[in-house]
From TrEMBL:
InterPro entries per the UniProt record, alphabetical: Memb_transporter_dom
Membrane topology: Multi-pass membrane protein
Protein name: Integral membrane bound transporter domain-containing protein
Entry's localization field: Cell membrane
Family: Belongs to the YccS/YhfK family.
Chief location category: membrane
Annotated keywords: Cell membrane, Membrane, Transmembrane, Transmembrane helix
Transmembrane segments: 55-71, 83-102, 114-141, 153-177, 372-389, 420-438, 444-469, 490-511
Species of origin: Methylobacterium crusticola
Superkingdom of origin: Bacteria
Pfam families referenced in this protein's UniProt entry, alphabetically: FUSC_2 (PF13515)
Length: 684
């Protein structure tokens, strides 16, 4: 099932082709208009007030809002977005304050960069959205804190507070001007799947030249292809995009079940069609989450009908459709797991769960852990260069290093090319336009247009975004610091080149992670470690809970799935000529992430659910064996897992919750199996 590993020459040409296409790509359908609008409001409103009220300090509020908006462009619309903004604002304010204090001496500045470099690098363990939000924290230290001319404690606290206020402004604007982010188009494609599915479930007879079955198949294929294309050009994974793809997979499952029911001469119940209609409306933003949860509750308590033809089989098909719709409705409502009355973990246990991913990535075999250490050392070296660079723009050196250095050496090289190309072109245009902008008003107009365009294209073209940033940065620096010389652009070019060079050297010499450990190897490693973790979790549900073994299995599985996400970005970028492989890669990665979340939820509930019963023992054996068979890569093997019957002696509420979660495990396993084994685009 594994495709042969391409030669070094083939990989080089693929990478060169990808870099070229990334520099030129332009997708008008993915322009972030509203994202750009609220970013510019956050920047310009404090700047205008600072001039009108003669309060120059308000400019720091606008800069803080602007930097945090850039860091929050990763997963716009996600339910964790307010939390990320709050964490980024507080950490950024603290980083800025410590930067002001540490800027008094080079040893303190380097030591502070080492600390903040490790901390911001480790935030990537919580996902790509947090990794992106970590960048403004590092920028607050090197761009706003260290260059400060006043290193007094009062100045540090004052500037840090203004940065936090900027974060608050961005949060208010984000909650006021909501958009679906770069994955909004995927949600619309998923909605099209459920609309086509509703028509298919209601159609007794086919009318028109295109059958309802063909429309469903086309909608699902289109949604998968779009999700893979957007994920390949995005900076990292997205919870919103992941949930949308899972909903597409559930639509595919519902389509198969509805087809089986129609072969028995039956149509799905009207309540099911009501649910698919609601899902389509919710994905289009036209259905309240509370209504989705209410409908999910109704679906969960709907009994299968007594059907005349092959009653037992048809009733089982209806039960599976109902359970799939139940999960889809909860996911669309933003809930990761079914509602439960089970006791929540104690505060200390929740705190332990919060820091468990950080502990898990501290090993030498963790891509995230090595990247965090590499990030700190490279940025600390950049701070040394900053100290010797002409004032006051030495911060451009460590700033460039923070955005160019990535977990993998290959992606670091790609980002360096994009950064240098965009900066060079933008600086040349900006320097050409500056003589035509004699007044601050004209300069501010160019800044507004350039920064707006930067945010609009940032979701899909980094080099183009840097071009617009560099165009606007020249007049912006003249607004903030009147009387600057025209060689400002040349200084920025030099600083960008030095920062990119430091990132490239560090990425290739300091504990490097090359692409030799490719996607096939990481998929296998994740399957093995997730299988071991599943064995521990299901064992805990039987009452066999060994805390040390569970913690180690969870750490290993979390580390492997995090590493898989890190390399997936490179894989999606390199297989542009194989859209089927892109889709399969994304489906497999998403299924593994969802599987980990379900196992974590079951582990948290294990103390209340623990009860030895034979059905669970058989399910545990079959489920772990099935994951092992996938890891062994046996072509054509029909791997499947049957649901475990819940004992009648179990508490009814606990029984419903456990049944739903085991069903979810099966669905996520089948999603993973289909991605790995589907022909003709077979994954490792």
């Amino acid at each position: 099932m594994l495709p042969p590993e391409p030669s070094a020459t083939a990989r080089w040409w693929a990478r060169a082709s990808t870099l070229t296409s990334d520099l030129l790509v332009f997708d008008p359908h993915r322009l972030g208009w509203v994202l750009a609008m609220r970013t510019m409001i956050g920047l310009l409103l404090p700047l205008i007030l600072a001039r009108l009220l003669d309060l120059p300090a308000l400019a720091w509020v606008g800069i803080g809002a602007y930097l945090l908006a850039i860091g929050d462009c990763m997963d716009d619309g996600d339910h964790q977005q307010p939390l990320r903004l709050a964490i980024g604002s507080l950490l950024g304010g603290l980083a800025l304050a410590t930067g002001v204090l540490a800027g008094a001496s080079l040893p303190l500045a380097v030591a502070g960069m080492l600390v903040w470099g490790v901390l911001t690098g480790l935030l990537g363990v919580y996902g790509n959205a947090f990794a992106t939000m970590a960048l403004p924290v590092a920028w607050a230290y090197v761009e706003l804190g260290l260059p400060s001319a006043d290193h007094a404690l009062s100045t540090a606290l004052f500037m840090g507070s203004l940065f936090v206020l900027g974060g608050g402004l961005t949060l208010v604007l984000t909650l006021t001007l909501r958009i679906g982010g770069p994955y909004a188009v995927v949600r619309l494609k998923a909605a099209a799947c459920y609309r086509a599915l509703t028509t298919y479930c209601a159609a007794d007879e086919e009318t028109g030249p295109i059958s309802s079955e063909t429309r469903v198949r086309a909608a699902i294929a289109d949604a998968r292809r779009t999700a893979a294309e957007i994920r390949g050009r995005a900076p990292g994974s997205s919870r919103v995009g992941q949930q949308s793809l899972v909903l597409v997979e559930i639509a595919d499952r519902l389509f198969s079940l509805a087809g089986a029911l129609r072969e028995d001469g039956c149509l799905p119940p009207s309540r099911f069609r009501q649910a698919t209609t609601a899902l389509a409306a919710a994905l289009e933003g036209r259905y309240a989450k509370e209504s989705l949860r209410a409908l999910a509750s109704e679906i969960a308590h709907t009994r299968a009908r007594s059907l005349p033809v092959q009653a037992a089989i048809s009733a089982e098909i209806e039960r599976r459709m109902g359970r799939a719709l139940y999960h889809a409705l909860l996911i669309a409502a933003g809930d990761e797991a079914p509602p439960s009355s089970l006791a929540q973990p104690a505060p200390l246990a929740r705190l332990s769960q919060l820091f468990a991913p950080l502990v898990g990535c501290l090993g030498r075999d963790s891509v995230v852990g090595r990247h965090a250490l590499r990030f700190a050392v490279v940025c600390a070296a950049a701070v040394v260069v900053f100290w010797a660079f002409p004032k006051p723009f030495g911060y451009w050196v460590p700033l460039t290093a923070t955005v160019v250095l990535k977990p993998y050496a290959g992606t670091t090289l790609a980002r360096a090319v994009q950064r240098i190309a965009g900066t060079t072109a933008g600086i040349l245009v900006g320097m050409t336009l500056m003589p035509l902008l004699p007044s601050p008003a004209l300069q501010l107009a160019l800044v507004s247009v350039a920064f707006f365009c930067m945010m609009a294209v940032l979701p899909f073209n980094y080099s183009l975004a840097i071009f617009f940033l560099s165009v606007g940065l020249i007049p912006f620096e003249h607004i903030l610091t009147p009387g600057l010389k025209q060689d400002l652009g040349l200084l920025r070019l030099a600083a960008t080149a030095i920062g990119a060079l430091l990132a490239l050297v560090g990425g290739h010499l300091l504990w490097p992670t090359f692409e030799s450990r490719t996607l096939p190897t990481l998929v296998r490693a994740s399957l093995v470690s997730v299988g071991a973790y599943a064995d521990q979790v299901l064992g805990a549900l039987e009452g066999n809970r060994e805390l040390a073994a569970v913690a180690e299995a969870r750490r290993r599985a979390g580390s492997d799935t995090t590493d898989l996400q890190s390399v997936l970005q490179r894989t999606l970028a390199e297989v542009g000529s194989k859209p089927g492989l892109m889709v399969a890669s994304l489906r497999a990665s998403t299924a593994l992430q969802r599987l980990m979340r379900t196992l974590n939820a079951l582990m948290n509930a294990a103390p209340a659910l623990a009860q030895p019963w034979s059905g669970l023992k058989h399910f545990r054996t079959a489920f772990v064996a099935a994951l092992s068979e996938l890891a062994a890569v046996q072509p054509g093997l029909p791997v499947s897992v049957l649901r475990a019957p819940i004992p009648a002696s179990m508490d009814p509420d606990n029984a419903v919750y456990l049944d739903c979660m085991l069903e979810r495990l099966i669905f996520e396993f089948e999603m993973l199996r289909d991605a790995l084994c589907e022909k003709p685009h077979t994954l490792p």
